[in-house]
Amino acid sequence: xxxxxxxxxxxxxxxxxxxxxxxxxxxxxxxxxxxxxxxxxxxxxxxxxxxxxxxxxxxxxxxxxxxxxxxxxxxxxxxxxxxxxxxxxxxxxxxxxxxxxxxxxxxxxxxxxxxxxxxxxxxxxxxxxxxxxxxx
Length: 136
Description:
6 helices, elongated, mainly alpha
């Protein structure tokens, strides 16, 4: 059987040559950033597979939720990492895309913030009741 044109007969050899010819730049985000760590976990779980297995995707989404990621942000990071791994691995472009996604806890109200808003709302209501009782 003849090989398909433009397709490598020895893909592992070509991949090593590409990596040697083009050293990977450092990521645009810190290696300890939870977004980057989630992407690296995607790469480790794919390890030679064309895409993530459903059970791996569910496990990643659950761990991202425990870390404080919103589901849409976790799904975006997983998709970016999966696409990047399919192209050859996590690179600078993928790290820049991942860096643009909010980290864990971003966009979710903190407990202190919620108590503050509740206190302000109660004070406004109390002030309104006092004003109505006095002049109403």
